[in-house]
Amino acid sequence: MSDWNKKRKLKKEIKLCMQTINEMERKRSRSQSALVQAVLLQETPDEHDVEWFNKYTGEITSVRNHMMELQKELNSLQ
Q1: Helices (H), 1-78
Q2: Most buried among 1, 7, 40, 63, using CB within 10 Å?
Q3: Whose CA is closest to 74, among 1, 8, 2?
Q4: What are phi and psi of 4, to 5 degrees?
């Protein structure tokens, strides 16, 4: 695979990662809002909201780390 094709593929993968992160952040925001509200009202947060928040946070971190590796690889080609 030529450097040009590899760069193009990496850029495409990075863009897909950013889209995935944006989508997961939107999904996480619902549980995040519920958690903040519980804290402000000094209530115990619903365990499902905590589970969803942790799930999406973990997935976002994983995709973000993968995206950084792709960016490093792209930078090394330039």
Answers
A1: 3-40, 47-77
A2: 63
A3: 8
A4: -60, -45
